[in-house]
Amino acid sequence: MSESGTARAEILRRIRTKLPPQTESAAASYARVPREYTQCGSLDHEAMIDLLIDRLVDYDSDVLRVPKGGDVSGAVAGLLAKKGETRLIVPPQVDPAWVPAGLDLLPDTPPLKTDAIEGAQAVLTPCEVAVASTGTIILKHGPVQGRRVLTLLPDHHICIVREDQVVESVPEAFARLTGTGDAPLTTISGPSATADIEMTRIRGVHGPRRLSVILIGL
Amino acid sequence: MSVRVGKTATAPAFPVAAKKAMQDDQLRRNVHHATSVIRGKRELRVAEMPDWQRLRDAGHAIKDHTLLYLDHYLEMFERNCERAGGKVHWARDADEANAIAIQLIQRYGGTEAGGIEAIKVKTMTSDEVQMNPALEAAGIHPYETDLADMIVQMGEDQPSHIVVPALHKNRHQIREIFIKKMELDSLGDQPADLADAARVYLREKFLRVKIGISGANYAIAETGAVCVVESEGNGRMCLTMPDVLITLIGIEKVIPTFRDLDTFLQLLPRSATGERMNPYNSLWTGVHPGDGPQAFHVILLDNGRTELLENERERETLDCIRCGACLNACPVYRETGGHAYGSIYSGPIGAILSPQLQSMEHSRSLPYASSLCGACYEVCPVKINIPETLIHLRGRVVRENQETFLGSIAPENLGMQLAAHLFTHPDEYEMAQSLAAIGQKPLMRGDLIGPLPGLLGGWTKFRDLAPIPSQSFRDWWKSREKQQHKEAR
């Protein structure tokens, strides 16, 4: 890449010669960007959770509610039983209390090989934050929410969302994520889908075909 | 420097290609159906947002600001991306970008002939630089993994839409392509059957191929993170499964901060596919031990973009976030489809972007491929004033034509010069008007002017032209004044 240094200098030079001279600093100019759009939601907690459920269901996700201290592992077992799934992946630091007994459990410790992940039927993770208005769950990948590949290859993703992780709007979600470090993020809104053929929405192209969300009450 | 935008250098002029496209009824039906569906969904999802106009204002302002400090933000992105283990390369034009990609792929994948494969997630920028033919010429096989892009690649076709590149094909046409290229004995014709075939065909590649190539929707200066917006999961596959990831980014894709994403992730999905949020967004920063590609290279591409920075009107074109809303809204695009534009960037945004990237050397007919109805401006999530830019570019084309000898003696130029003279000389204008009122008589068909001969024929081919009235307004005004004068006496 011996040319790249030259290219870098030339592109930066072109930018500087073409642009009008600026009288203020980038930071001062950036501070003047108008952001008068809605930053915070206005719904009460119950209405916000209802909105999230409505959005999740609209995008073909299964939703279950479990009260605080309720039977999460039972809910997980129920979701797996629907399609007779038994091979479940769990990231290293997932709460063991969530995991039902009697499964062919695949803990990602040490890291699973690709064919083992490919051979699993489901994966169980928590999330970092969920957005009610768009029905989006956001994963911050690491030992708790898993490596990216874990929630990509299995056909069924079960995601556990604590109700205190739910915000109403996209800006609130990004405010919560700011400063949480460099870990990769994936935002998930329903199962994998395409509308490339005659604009007909088809579920489950390459990512998980099913998304189930378990909401744990405050 | 040789800027290449798809195959624009050899593409026919828009009116020629458009005429051919408009004779293809199947294509027009397919395009009409797809654009109508997306328009309907977009309207629904935009109507849900009481703060839509304020979001547009913010999106426009962030882009505007970033372009004014582009060098600052590109250097910041480079610093933070490399701090996190990425490597940033700079490419002045299409050839340089392709050369960097080929060198990297050969460095990691070896150089034995016919051996190296790469998986690609949809990237308009790589279509712009014609990366696939360049890779193939170097013995590298790129597999497009976005369903629509795969249809285009397998059909040896060109993309016809920024977001839905194969919207000109219906399911039956796609089925034929899949049966032939995937060597299948049988295949259903339902969209789900076709998506399943793609899933099976590509899963093997996702698990095996070691090099991934992507574009990017956003590059975040503050953190060095890159963001890819998609729906199928093929993006996640290409960004996660390979050992090596090469990401091609147009320099205008940089945004200042992580928080800016909250603006664009509200604007883009609703504008592009009419969804509250697209199924997947991936954000990553450099390399992460144990998770995803362990080598990450970014190619920052100029390819004519810096030429647009000087003029404010032209600079705004670089605000584009490639949502395709202007294509779906455009009455011209909806009739002709994307291929008529002769560029991988079609529709209203293509009509201003393609010619400008190439310093108006190619695609000079595109600024005229518009009715100037303003629908593109209405739907643009970052408020690019496309109609104003079309007019601005038409002005450039005319001025540049006038500067050539043939252009200076062209009938259109002479006619316009005459008109300009008449409009500034009232007596001569009035005389010309009364002469024209007499002269038009042989051309009248009933109450209207029929097909005109020669150069003026273009105007009357598809339009009725009202004749010049026998009494002009000025004559009527004068006679009225005379009458009042008489009555006053």
Could you describe the 3D structure shown?
- The complex is a heterodimer of chains A (218) and B (489).
- Chain A has 218 residues and is an alpha/beta fold.
- Chain A is built from six helices and twelve strands.
- Chain A is globular, with a radius of gyration of 22 Å.
- Chain B is α/β, with parallel strands linked by helices and 489 residues long.
- Chain B contains 23 helices and twelve strands.
- Chain B has helices at residues 14-21, 25-47, 52-68, 70-83, 94-109, 124-128, 131-137, 147-154, 171-181, 191-208, 234-240, 261-272, 312-315, 325-329, 331-336, 347-357, 375-379, 386-402, 405-408, 411-423, 426-439, 457-461, 473-488, and strands at residues 87-91, 116-120, 140-144, 211-214, 218-220, 225-230, 244-250, 254-255, 280-285, 295-301, 444-445, 448-449.
- In chain B, a hairpin with a 4-residue loop joins strand 5 (218-220) and strand 6.
- In chain B, helix 3 (52-68) packs across helix 12 and helix 16 crosses helix 18.
- The mean pLDDT of chain B is 94.
- At the A-B interface, helix 1, helix 2, helix 6, strand 9 and strand 10 of A face helix 2, helix 3, helix 4, strand 1 and helix 5 of B.
- Strand 9 (185-188) of chain A pairs antiparallel with strand 9 of chain B, so a sheet runs across the interface.
How many distinct helices of chain B? 23
SS-based structural class of chain A? alpha/beta
Distance between the termini of chain A: 55 Å
Q: Whole-number radius of gyration of chain B?
A: 27 Å
Query: What would the principal axes of the Cα set say about the shape of chain B?
Result: elongated
- Oligomer classification: heterodimer
Largest interface: A-B, 72 and 96 residues
The major pleated sheet of chain B works out as: 6 strands, parallel
Whole-Å distance between the termini of chain B? 78 Å
Which residue ranges of chain B are poorly predicted, with pLDDT under 50 across at least 5 consecutive positions? Answer: none
How many strands, which pairing sense, and closed or not: the largest β-sheet of chain A?
Answer: 6 strands, parallel
What is the overall silhouette of chain A? globular
Helix share of residues of chain B? 40-55%
Amount of helix of chain A = 25-40%
Number of separate strands of chain B? 12
Percent of residues in beta strands of chain B: 5-15%
- List the total number of helices of chain A: 6
Radius of gyration of chain A: 22 Å
Strand order of the largest sheet of chain A: 1-12-7-4-2-3
Mean of residue pLDDT values of chain B = 94
The total count of strands of chain A amounts to 12
